Structures are given as C-alpha cells and as structure tokens.
Amino acid sequence: MSETHYRKLERMYHDSPVGETIETELTVGDGAATVEVPVKERYHHALSGVHGAVYFKALDDAAFFAANSVVEDVFVLTTDFNLYFERPVSAGTIRAEGELVNENPEQLIAESVAYDDDGNELARGSGTFRKSDVALTPDIGYE
Question: Which segments of 15-127 does DSSP mark as H helices, in order?
C-alpha cells in the first residue's frame, strides 16, 4: 500500500463529524493503525472514569483503519466487534494500537489493544470487517 492512501484515510477520519464529539488522533500504516484519545472530563461516567463508548471508539477505529489500510478501492465496514474492558482510566491519553491479523476475499480480521500513559493495558478488542460497495472518493472525504 502507499503512504498517499494512509494519509487520505487519516484526513477522511479527521474530517468526520464524530471527531467533534470525541477528539482523537489517527496514524495509519501497513496493516496497522494507532488512535490516541486525550482523556477529557466530559468523557467520564458518574464514577469519574472514561465511559466505555470512548474505549470502543478508540479500539474499533484502530482495528478498522488497520483493516482499511490494505484496501485502497473501497470503504470497509465493521461487521462484528468484541470488546474486553480490563481497567479504568480517568486522565492522560488512551492509545489504541490496531493490527490486521487475517485477510481473505470475504473478510478482514483485526485486533486492537488500548494502553494508558504508563503502558498498562486498559482494554482489547477484535473485529471482523468486510469490503463495502462504497468507493474511496473525495465525496466521502478520501482526498
């Protein structure tokens, strides 16, 4: 795959409306992606820990873009995602690292692990992705 493809995926991601709700930074590579989420108090649940939705977003996005990094013509879709919460976090940065672990014509499988600033594992996830019929074009922010 090409660096141009990775940068276009990153721009598409950063220009999406959900980025205004949960602030993240994405870096895409060959079969890999990293999502960093600076923890904000507005992401906390009633016990002052980060809500699980933020963990899910970081882990799904990291796995998703690891999968889409090897597909240059169409957008992939998450068809299944399993999430395992391991420990809470309330400050710092959540760093989710995604990796493509299997690719075949019908599906892609990627895993991701989230860490805190001290390298402690916070959560992990695995997802199944498939190619959609939606072309990667400037119409969807792929430019």
Answer: 52-68
Q: What is the pTM of this model?
A: 0.96
pLDDT digits (tens, 9 = 90+) for 99-132: 999 999 899 999 999 999 999 999 999 999 999 9
Going through the chain in order, the beta strands assigned E by DSSP cover 25-29, 32-38, 74-85, 93-103, 108-115, 121-135
- Sequence-distant (6+) residues with CB within 8 A of 85 are 52, 55, 122, 123
Give me the residues paired with residue 36 across strands. Answer: 25, 95
pLDDT for 1 beyond 80: no
- Look at the alpha carbons of 86, 53, 33, 130 in this order and tell me if their dihedral is positive or negative: positive
Residue-wise DSSP of 22-37: S--EEEEETTEEEEEE
- Domains along the sequence of the chain with CATH: 3-137 (3.10.129.10)
Tokens of 91: 């400050």
